Amino acid sequence: MKPTRVRHKNYQRTRPSIDYKKGVYLLPNILTSMSLFCGFYAIIATMQQNFVVGAWVIILAGVFDGLDGKVARMTHTTSRFGLEYDSLCDLVAFGVAPAVLSFGLILNQFGRVGWLAAFLFCACGAMRLARFNTLSSAVSGNYFQGMPIPGAAGILSASIIFLDHYQLGDKTFLSFFLIALIFCLAFLMVSTIRFRSFKTFNLNSRKPFSAVFIAILLIVVVAMEPETMLFCIGVLYITTAFVEYILSLTRRRQPSETTIEATEENK
Q1: Within 13 Å of residue 55, how many CA atoms lie on the same side as its CB?
Q2: How many folded domains does the chain comprise?
Q3: Which structural domain range is residue 230 located in?
Q4: Does the pTM exceed 0.85?
Q5: Whole-number pLDDT of residue 72
Q6: Phi and psi, residue 24, nearest 5°
């Protein structure tokens, strides 16, 4: 006979204690909702064949995504709800929306390979967000492990705007360039390459006068030619990450080589 389980009358299943009566912080979650709205509108714009408008709206979603975290940290209104809500909105705005935009613009010509490439971008973005949520407390605030999904979506959108503005190449060139870019960005999101984070940049502290001048100059340059400058900023962001990654590998090899030489001398 199987032993019968005796369950105490006061037995209750353990559940996480969450006080829903406390409510949520309004300002950062409104900014997060604006990011979600931009991602949703980018999908609508893609369905209406307004691909460049959809790309611009995704970049605008990135602005709101950067503001909500900065505002939450400055006003001390960070919460677990805000973190989870931000991740869900990021998946729509920077995962689903760029994938739909790319497929509607050019990837539909590749058939199965095209929509699988769009799905790969979205899936890697989801895994990137899940890894960030689980490792956010263990990773340094100065760097991201893997390219952040807003950065990948922004670079993809900036590339579409850049190519459309200057009418570079024909449809064949655009097709192969975008599908190669999507595979590259998907790999970078799930890689272990470190990308710089600007979360620790403190706006409340005093800065030298030259920093204000450089910030104003950067705004003016981007405003004069945004189609070119946004693309160049994306290329510079990727290039900087690769250069720092190569330098870190070089620094790791140098101590090991000196250790090997020292052991050989002792022999």
Answers
A1: 25
A2: 1
A3: 25-202+222-258
A4: no
A5: 82
A6: -130, 160
